[in-house]
Each structure stands twice: as structure tokens, then as C-alpha cells.
Specification:
- By secondary structure, the protein is an alpha/beta fold.
- The chain has one domain: UDP-N-acetylmuramoyl-L-alanine:D-glutamate ligase.
- Helices cover about 35% and strands about 25% of the residues.
- Strands 5-4-1-8-9-10-11-12-13 form a 9-stranded mixed sheet, with helices on both faces. Strands 3-2-6-7 form a 4-stranded mixed sheet.
- Strand 12 and strand 13 form a beta hairpin.
- Helix 1 packs across helix 8 and helix 9 packs across helix 10.
- The longest helix has 16 residues.
- It is globular, with a radius of gyration of 19 Å.
- The two termini are about 35 Å apart.
- The mean pLDDT is about 95.
Length: about 300
């Protein structure tokens, strides 16, 4: 199976710890870490940890883009970087040691030029084969059309590709214009797709099944935060609770869940086990600090907890 992740708005993720958050003072940071980040990048990294071969495609520009590319090379991922003129954005996560609260600062991306967009489309078309799962994950820069992912899907209509879209905001709403293989909104995003501010449990299930019956997706996975997740498919709805663990950071947990889902799909597992592996990888990532993702050790710990 050919698995490709696409991240058009990746980031060089920085994390640090400070003793106490105080305004208008120079705060000394320690425990500095740098990680390659962004939706598809995170998914590729967790898939690599799970032993699943995949191609990590991402845009990169400037010194930050060079550093992101180097970090992925050091992890020995199979990568397809798309050079762009704008510098790759940076994100910052700071933990206050006194309270153990985490503060997250996300920077905007610059978007792609017409030439860069055409290069991206051309590269995707060369890499995508009939037996491909293509994961379009992460935000779309504000300077780009929210239906950018739909434009990419349109360029692949001649090929039998399983499309997974994991995004938010206007880009998520636009994703309903084309049928996809899998989508993974959270509760708030599912309500937005339904045109409401809030959905009850019954309404969540009904709307997710409506997406399935309308053939807008084969799988709809809805993350419920600390309460786990549910999966809707032609076979109905299944739930998976999360085991009790100490949460150190939620950065990358949603992306890690997608990686777990893809791992199970590549193994031809049942809907219940597809969801289970999604939750396993999402929870395993919350057990690590800063911007680190699920490790083999933490994945095994969660597997063992779910057996109890």
C-alpha cells in the first residue's frame, strides 16, 4: 500500500520550560527542544514509529524549512520536500513549571505562489498510484483558498485514491464538497459541519451516520477529548474510551490518532480495532512532554492498559 502524507503548512515546533510566567520580564527558558511539526508531518512520524512505510511530502523554505527537513532526515523518514520561497513557520509551546500549565503559540503560514502550487500538484500526481492512501492534513494558510484540498482532490479524480482529510475551519467545511475515505473532526468541528454550535450525543451520531449514508465519507471518526472517540461507518457506530494516564501535552495527539487509524486500516482491521488503534496512538502522544509524539514504549503501555 502506498501511503503519502501532505503538509502544506508545516512548522518547526519549539518547546521550552520556564519557572514562572511573569509579564514584562525576561524569562529564562530551559529544556529546549525542536521538532518537525504540522499535521501530515506528525502523522508520518508516528507511522514511522509504528513501522509503516510512508512518504512525507511537505513544503519547506528558509532556514526554518532547512532545519525541519534535517530533523526528518535524522529520523530516517522517506521525505519529499517541496521548496518554497517563504520561510517555514515556527510554533512555540511553553510549560510553566510552577503550575505545569502549557501555553501554545501558533504562527501563521505564508501560503504558496501559483508556481509552487503547480509544482505541488505535479509532484502529487507523479507519486500517487492506484493503490494510494493520501492524507491531506493540517491547516490551510489564510492567504490560500479554503477549498485548496478540494482542488487537489479534483486533480486526482482519474485515479482510485483513498483520500483522508484532517483539517479545521473553512477548509474542513469545504472538504464536504467531495467524497473522502475518512475524516476526523472533533465534537466542535462536527457541529460546525452540521451548521450548529453544539450537538448532543444522539445528534452527533445521527449526523456522522448521515455523512456515511450520503457517501461523503466511508469512515467518520469523532474525537471526544478525554472521553475517547467514536467511529461511524456502514457497519454503524462504535465507541472507544481512553485509559487513565497522566497527560503531559496534547500537541500532536489528533495527528497521532490519524496515524493509528491508518496503521489499522493498512492491517485490514475491523472498524472497532481501527478506532482502538487511533485512540492508542493519540493517548500515547499525550503521555510525552513538549512537542514529542508517541513513542514505542508509550504505545505499548496504552495497549497494555486497554487489555486490563
Amino acid at each position: 500500500m502506498n501511503i503519502i502524507t501532505l503538509t502544506i503548512n508545516p512548522a518547526l515546533d519549539k518547546s521550552a520550560t520556564i519557572n514562572h510566567l511573569v509579564p514584562e520580564q525576561k524569562l529564562k527558558c530551559h529544556a529546549i527542544e525542536f521538532q518537525a511539526g504540522g499535521g501530515g508531518v506528525n502523522i508520518s512520524r508516528v507511522l514511522h514509529t509504528l513501522g509503516v512505510k510512508n512518504n512525507c511530502m511537505f513544503t519547506c523554505g528558509g532556514d526554518t524549512g532547512h532545519t525541519l527537513k534535517r530533523l526528518l532526515e535524522e529520523e530516517q523518514l522517506n521525505i519529499t520536500p517541496i521548496p518554497v520561497e517563504a520561510w517555514t513557520r515556527e510554533n512555540l509551546a511553553v510549560v510553566e513549571a510552577k503550575t505545569e500549565l502549557q501555553y501554545r503559540f501558533g504562527m501563521p503560514g505564508q501560503g504558496l505562489s501559483t508556481t509552487e502550487t503547480e509544482t505541488l500538484k505535479s509532484t502529487i500526481n507523479k507519486l500517487v498510484t492506484e493503490d494510494t492512501i493520501l492524507i491531506m492534513s493540517g491547516s490551510v494558510p489564510d492567504t490560500m483558498a479554503p477549498d485548496f484540498y478540494i482542488q487537489l482532490i479534483d486533480s486526482l479524480t482519474a485515479k482510485n485514491v483513498k483520500i483522508i482529510v484532517d483539517t479545521s475551519g473553512e477548509a474542513l467545511k469545504a472538504s464536504l464538497q467531495k467524497p473522502v475515505f475518512l475524516m476526523k473532526p472533533n465534537q466542535g468541528e462536527l457541529a460546525q459541519l452540521a451548521g450548529k454550535d453544539f450537538l448532543t450525543k444522539t445528534e452527533q451520531e445521527a449526523f456522522a451516520m448521515q455523512l456515511i449514508h450520503n457517501k461523503q465519507a466511508q469512515y467518520v471518526v469523532v474525537s471526544l477529548g478525554a472521553r475517547g472517540a467514536f467511529l461511524a461507518s456502514a457497519n454503524g457506530i462504535v465507541y472507544q474510551n481512553t485509559p487513565s494516564v497522566k497527560v503531559k501535552s496534547t500537541i500532536g495527539a489528533g495527528d497521532s490518532m490519524v496515524a493509528g487509524l491508518i496503521y489499522a486500516i493498512s492491517q485490514n482491521l475491523s472498524p472497532a480495532n481501527i478506532l482502538k488503534w487511533g485512540v492508542i496512538c493519540g493517548v500515547a502522544t499525550t503521555m510525552t512532554g513538549g512537542t514529542n509524539l508517541a513513542s514505542k514504549e508509550n504505545i505499548q503501555k496504552v495497549v497494555d492498559l486497554l487489555k486490563e
